[in-house]
Amino acid sequence: MPTVLITGASGGIGYELAKLFARDRHNLVLVARSNEKLTQVAAELQPLGVTVKTIALDLAALPAPKFLFDQLQRDGIAIDILVNNAGFGAFGEFAQMPEEEIHGQISLNITALTELTRLFLPPMIARRSGHIMNVASTAAFQPGPLMAVYYATKAYVLSFSEAIANELHGSGVTVTCFCPGSTDTGFAKRAGTENSRIFKQFGAMSAEEVARDGYRALMAGRTTAISGARNWMVAQSTRFAPRKVVTAISRWVAEKAEP
Ligand SMILES: NC(=O)c1ccc[n+]([C@@H]2O[C@H](COP(=O)([O-])OP(=O)(O)OC[C@H]3O[C@@H](n4cnc5c(N)ncnc54)[C@H](OP(=O)(O)O)[C@@H]3O)[C@@H](O)[C@H]2O)c1
Q: Could you tell me the distance, in angstroms and rounded to a whole number, from the CA of residue 251 to the centre of ligand 1?
């Protein structure tokens, strides 16, 4: 049975992905900070006949990705599929944003994702098989005033993933950059964007629906996939409008909706 490592699997999109992989008979390695939530997820999924290993880790702390890799090596667990899903955003003007929020987003959304890819990719190349899915966002396609760092981190994820997908062509390993739009998870509350126009007026997809899109894209080895037809159209429209206009609209949707 193949083994999948999913970061950020204690809730939201990562949890829904874990359910899909378990139903399709994949052993799971689930990572998040909350040991309690991970244990609950494991108890729910083990009866499906798969092995579920949980590792509670703060991936934003630099040694964490290497610690995770070393622990799995010691346990003799090879990872066939890596899903870099853990990520968070923070709302507010950059000049006022606390230092830990800025560095936290960069450490988790960029550094941990890159480091996990660096560590888990070579064994996949050696086996000439494997999949990596990096969860970006539709935020990757334009600058995001009021969430400047978050949008920039997701632009990195998109660019990085598409570049290495190209490098790995013919290697037997695929890299998928998956881009959800607004999704009904714990993300908006953590980010402080629950009252933004994007969540209030435009609505959010369910985590289950989004995870299904991501799962299909990963299994098909697609390089870039945007969840939802409306999100796809919005992402495409940013290619043709002037950057200043795109940035101004991006700010408007991030602002608080009128009550
Ligand atoms: N929801 C949206 O609207 C949306 C839209 C586009 C893209 N995305 C992206 O989708 C991905 C999943 O987000 P989500 O919406 O499912 O958010 P979520 O419900 O907040 O889930 C985030 C997951 O990441 C884990 N996590 C957070 N910080 C961590 C850390 N430092 N170390 C390890 N694990 C950590 C959380 O568990 P613990 O708290 O237990 O650590 C949780 O399992 C993220 O990359 C996000 O940027 C979300």
A: 22
- With a 6 Å cutoff on the Cβ, whether 34 touches ligand 1 is yes
Q: Which of 116, 113, 90 is nearest to 103 (CA)?
A: 90
pLDDT class of 121 with cuts at 50, 70, 90? very high
Burial grade of 104 (CB within 10 A; 0-12, 13-18, 19 or more): middle
Q: How far is the CA of 87 from the centre of ligand 1 (A)?
A: 4
Rounded distance, CA 153 to CA 132, Å?
18
Ligand 1 touching residue 59 (CB < 6 A): yes
C-alpha 15/C-alpha 66 separation (Å) is: 23
Question: Please, are residues 22 and 47 in contact by the beta-carbon 8 Å criterion?
Answer: no
Q: What percent of the chain has pLDDT above 70?
A: 100
Which pLDDT score is estimated for 203?
85
Long-range residue pairs from 47-51, CB within 8 A, at least 24 positions apart, any chain: 48/22, 48/23, 49/25, 50/1, 50/22, 50/25, 50/26, 51/1, 51/3, 51/27
